[in-house]
Amino acid sequence: MATLSDIGVSALINILSAFAFLLAFALLRIQPVNDRVYFPKWYINGERASPRRGGNFVAKFVNLDFKTYLTFLNWMPQALKMSETQLINHAGLDSAVFLRIYTLGLKIFVPIAVVALLILIPVNVSSGTLFFLRKELVVSDIDKLSISNVPPKSIRFFVHIGLEYLFTIWICYMLYKEYDNVATMRLHFLASQRRRAEQFTVAVRNVPQIPGHSIADSLDHFFKTNHPDTYLCHQAVYNANKFASLVRKRDRLQNWLDYNQLKFERNPEKRPTKKIGFLGLWGERVDSIDFYKQQIKEFDKRMELERQKVLKDSKSILPVAFVSFKSRWGAAVCAQTQQSKNPTLWLTDWAPEPRDVYWRNLAIPFVSLTIRKLIISLSVFALVFFYMIPIAFVQSLANLEGLERVAPFLRPVIELKFIKSFLQGFLPGLALKIFLYVLPTILMIMSKIEGHIAVSTLERRASAKYYYFMLVNVFLGSIVTGTAFQQLHSFLHQPPTQIPRTIGVSIPMKATFFITYIMVDGWAGIAGEILRLKPLVIFHLKNMFLVKTERDREMAMDPGSVDYPETLPSLQLYFLLGIVYAVVTPILLPFILVFFAFAYLVYRHQIINVYNPQYESGAAFWPHVHSRIIASLLISQLLLMGLLSTKEAANSTPLLVILPILTLSFHKYCKSRFEPAFRKHPLEEAMAKDLLGRTTEPDINLKAFLADAYLHPIFRSFKEEELVEIRVDKVRVDRHQSYADNAQSRDDISSPSPPHHAYHPTSPPHHSYHQPTTSPPQDIYHHGIPPQYDYNHYGYHYEAESWTSRD
Amino acid sequence: MATLSDIGVSALINILSAFAFLLAFALLRIQPVNDRVYFPKWYINGERASPRRGGNFVAKFVNLDFKTYLTFLNWMPQALKMSETQLINHAGLDSAVFLRIYTLGLKIFVPIAVVALLILIPVNVSSGTLFFLRKELVVSDIDKLSISNVPPKSIRFFVHIGLEYLFTIWICYMLYKEYDNVATMRLHFLASQRRRAEQFTVAVRNVPQIPGHSIADSLDHFFKTNHPDTYLCHQAVYNANKFASLVRKRDRLQNWLDYNQLKFERNPEKRPTKKIGFLGLWGERVDSIDFYKQQIKEFDKRMELERQKVLKDSKSILPVAFVSFKSRWGAAVCAQTQQSKNPTLWLTDWAPEPRDVYWRNLAIPFVSLTIRKLIISLSVFALVFFYMIPIAFVQSLANLEGLERVAPFLRPVIELKFIKSFLQGFLPGLALKIFLYVLPTILMIMSKIEGHIAVSTLERRASAKYYYFMLVNVFLGSIVTGTAFQQLHSFLHQPPTQIPRTIGVSIPMKATFFITYIMVDGWAGIAGEILRLKPLVIFHLKNMFLVKTERDREMAMDPGSVDYPETLPSLQLYFLLGIVYAVVTPILLPFILVFFAFAYLVYRHQIINVYNPQYESGAAFWPHVHSRIIASLLISQLLLMGLLSTKEAANSTPLLVILPILTLSFHKYCKSRFEPAFRKHPLEEAMAKDLLGRTTEPDINLKAFLADAYLHPIFRSFKEEELVEIRVDKVRVDRHQSYADNAQSRDDISSPSPPHHAYHPTSPPHHSYHQPTTSPPQDIYHHGIPPQYDYNHYGYHYEAESWTSRD
């Protein structure tokens, strides 16, 4: 076990590496050539068209203004400048509320840390069992400050129990305030949104197929009958998954063509060639440019066929539709009520934002959803508890003998003693590292299989799965020795009352491990986040090989968004650690505080300058955050009970029994008080907005407004005549008008906020970032739709420009 | 352990006592004097006004037609005559579906019994471990037929596992068919109902109190804003609990007055007197008739004051209302949507039937509901697991020494050896017996404290609590020795995998106990049910002491209704026993079959001739029945796994693991497929009925129709002028007209059914029971409302006539 000085060394190393990252970031971000990596959000918002410094050729790539190097930490105060309202306007409510989780962590843990350190450390130290036992036991310095130092049956445990009560009450109070706050923010945000397609639209699944009637007819008939006063129109959903996959493949070919053309331009003597066999390793050698052009032509033909099929074949119309209503009230009513006698038909739910729709899952037949959910929950269980089994199997294969057999030519190298020992230490861990790296992807695929139709829901589900994995394998797995599978086995064969004792008793001993974990994963990891090494490299690679026009460069920058499926669970893990160790080893708390403060700064900077949210769910993740902090409270209470029962504190432990019951009731109360704000849509609100809308825009053509809001994004590439067929209004509307409308409404996530002061990280402060700049950014997107709005529907990013602009 | 012959003796005793009950029933029911006890339903339906036989004076009381004595079992075929459609018209859907539980039991267990007996008994008997061990072990004959007889590690366990699969699939198939059936019946029933107040009405709780505005104003404003097209009116709810309790007390006084007046009439020489002290044991002796008249006068004054208070004091208007809509669609929309931004305000839910409303709970403030639920769930837990503690305490007090101290004059009697030993055997059990007798009442009170506003919900909740109690204390308590508390203790200190083993291994040994239980509780108990001993005695007592007029006699008959809180849990226990023992000791199944068949006959007879349902919930209890049978399946699978694991059947037991998962998925599927039919209200349905209504009754005055449907029933005693104030339409409508309307719509639970053949247990078959007889029964109720409709709102029955007819 580590002593205080060991921890000091570890802290030093981690602080140094964090500083190294920060320094690298500070240097890289002020280079004009990296501007699109570190400030993409401003390009997307349309406030920057090119790196800010003009001047000579070199200055276009390297920052020659040496003064700026001196103030390399100035991003921190800048990140704090923007007010929360501005932040919501700038990056959406999701991002603003995401940052509130960090401030909530600070608000919860700063007072707890002060109280715990001031009260518990003296109580624990002065008890001093461990001081006397020192010679017999290997005891770390950290343990002297923890509850382990209190002798069994001591009356001092009342202090710990009292503080557990105090902390629980404090955390519940803060949680209540925060839930209230977030719910109000959400309602205010939704209320202040201007007219948006999803306010009028309901997603209807499982439309019954009546022989002799088209889906469109039965939809029209059903809603005209049952919502006669409010039904407006519907948008059929076409199964364009195959077409979309063709588009994706064609894009990849187009990238290769671009790459080869650029290569040829730079080196006009030699036309690039390639082998047409597997992976370009063998086969006939052909001219690359001709080859790809030929391939693309073939793809265009296949796509044309597929397009005709989608448009003409009635089977490509899915039994799913987006049904729009004349008023928000009508949509709210339809979304919340049961439509049909048969509860598995005509399932209505609020439609996700158009850009939040995960189109591919709309094609999943509803009947298979139950089975999918069952299979996925079994798989998650297996993944959480048995993931070590396949990895151990792979590890047993991926040893040196295996490597030598596969690649005999490496034998002389491997046989070198130095390299051999290195590989022996490295290879077995490799499988595990690869697994942990791809784990979020696996979990996301699992969530996709479950069949949710919104990207936001997918991310929340993936995040839940990741949390279970972390809870079992990082938290419990570090405390109790053995793999999760062994733990599961031993837990099944232990009495239930024994489990908290087993875990509780080892908690104080693992404090040093978790302190190190916080420093590595929390401190250095977050510093790595701000550096954006991967996007930096990819951007420059693309810039070198693919970028021809300004638009290509626009496409090459990958702002990304907050990676909720990974960050939310790890945040929740930090809450768990803080809450569990608050009364056990309070010395851990300052490390968590540093993490929360630092991560807050980093993410605030990233949200302002980098991330470009793919969707806006209106903080729909908050109920999960809330309930997982409550779960952490319950875990901490159970474990403290187990710990104290091993300390034979029989007279004080029963006092704790009532705490979980109270916590649970608090949770139930919060759930009934606030959760409906995140799940349901009050009619009062909808009616108020309808009335407002009727007075401010009395003669709006809603049908035109909704014309292709919920059109599969792939159809935007279709010819105008074809589109008329599949659009809700079925008549030709002025296309650019409707896009402009759309773009405007999208722009108005923010709308009726007071005229706010301008904010820009470097530009003069009176330059408002909200108005489009003089050169409208729409020009660089095809059809005036920003690319992230257009293509992210598929759940994957288009790495280069889309083919559509090329017909 | 009992041998087969022991069971034979027990069966004989129980069959004999069941026959004794049936014989007594057969003799008593054909006496004209008991006609109102055994055929009250026909009096309430208005098809009988007096016992059917005229003739001389004696024949009015005693049946002199000796031929009828010979056919004393003829009620059985009679009970089967009525078709299910007729039954629904006659007694409502609840009763008809309740009977279907018994037929479901038969449908499930007849094939299972045949298969299990044919396959398992040979398999078990021919194994014969126990035959060889006979000398060492005390083994019953029953065990020879059970799974205990199979030697450990036998390959024969595959037969048991195969049958468990087969039975599970069969039960799931039957459950699915039955759920489908019941859901269709419910939807058909609801669809075929004529216009009823609850179709248009929504119960709104937690109406916010806005200072300066009356509740009525804010209600009107809110619903006019948010449901402008459909809102019609609302009925405020007055807190008349105090007034109702005064009415109740006055009724009791009135009963005493009646009793004394009757006594005086029969014996005019002596005016009855009473002592005015505690319980009439001491104090001044006064004239009873004068005393009660005086008391009633005082009560009338207090009631007048209270009535004024209710009408005038704005505080007596509760923040609860019944809001009515112009269309069923409007009500369906309002009931299913969230109204307000604050999800704890304006809570809407479908209104229960007027006679199903439990008025007293409407006064409970909503905020306390969470706390109430928490407290009650803790209490139920405590009651289930620790109920033995207070009883043991009382038992320790209620011994002979205690009795001698309280009543020293009894000492000479108690000291007699024979009586002493009898009392010593009797007294300790007394506390337990009293507890078990009052348990359903306690559970009902608990459910009432939980704050549900419909009597049907209260009964369902009480039934759930009783089920938990039976499951733990009857089922598990009989299998594992020790009190529930000791079991809980040992289960908490056992590994979870050990629990099914502990229970599983003792299951076969308890088969004889449960066979006896089925015979005592099931066979003889059901036979006792048909005899109706308590209502018989009470009816004759009332007839002797209170009845003066024909109307009094009408009041004195207490038809009761199916006692769901007690019968549903015990039914579910029989399902549990059947399912658990099907593969373990199949010889138990025939006993359960006899129970189901016999209970079906008895309850069918009672439902046709006796019970008068207090409310109609449209089989809302079915999802509970379904899910508890599924729970029984899961329990049986777990216990079989435990049992097999003690038999070291390691190669076959793992095969069972997948079964609970499949069962659970089946349950989830059923839940999503059918449960919404019981909880939600499809708009399609509402719209269809609206359209139908608009064409058939285009000019109905809905406001007048709804005028006082949801008026607290106590207000029906108010003067007409006062009523105008509190009724929804606030204008004078023709009162009798509206009642007639009501009565008609109530009558039409049945409506559009084909003209059916007449049915009457004894009258000639062409006498239709559906048309009112020439002497309308309304005459004998005050205001034309049948008494069960008028007074059962309180959740208690008025034993004698109400005071209202006396002002």
Would you summarize the structure shown here?
2 copies of one chain form a homodimer. Chain A is mostly helical and 807 residues long.
What are the defining features of this structure?
homodimer, 62% helix, globular, 6 strands, disordered C terminus, 35 helices, two-stranded antiparallel ribbon, 807 residues, mainly alpha
- Report strand order across the widest sheet of chain A: 2-5-1-6
Distance between the termini of chain A: 67 Å
Structural class of chain A: mainly alpha
Helix fraction of chain A by DSSP (H/I, runs of at least 4): 55-70%
The greatest interface between two protein chains, and residues involved on each side, is: A-B, 46 and 47 residues
Number of structurally distinct domains of chain A? 2
Unreliably modeled segments of chain A: 132-139, 731-807
Average the pLDDT over all residues of chain A and give the rounded result: 77
Number of strands of chain A: 6
Structure description:
The structure is a homodimer of 807-residue chains. Chain A is mostly helical and 807 residues long. Chain A folds into two domains: 4-193 and 367-684, no CATH class; 198-352, no CATH class. Chain A is 62% helix and 4% strand. The longest helix of chain A has 36 residues, at 157-192. The first copy, chain A, is globular. The N and C termini of chain A lie far apart (67 Å). Chains A, B: Residues 372-644 form the CSC1/OSCA1-like 7TM region domain. Chains A, B: Residues 7-178 form the CSC1/OSCA1-like N-terminal transmembrane domain. Chains A, B: The chain crosses the membrane at residues 6-28, 108-134, 154-176, 374-398, 418-445, 466-485, 573-603.
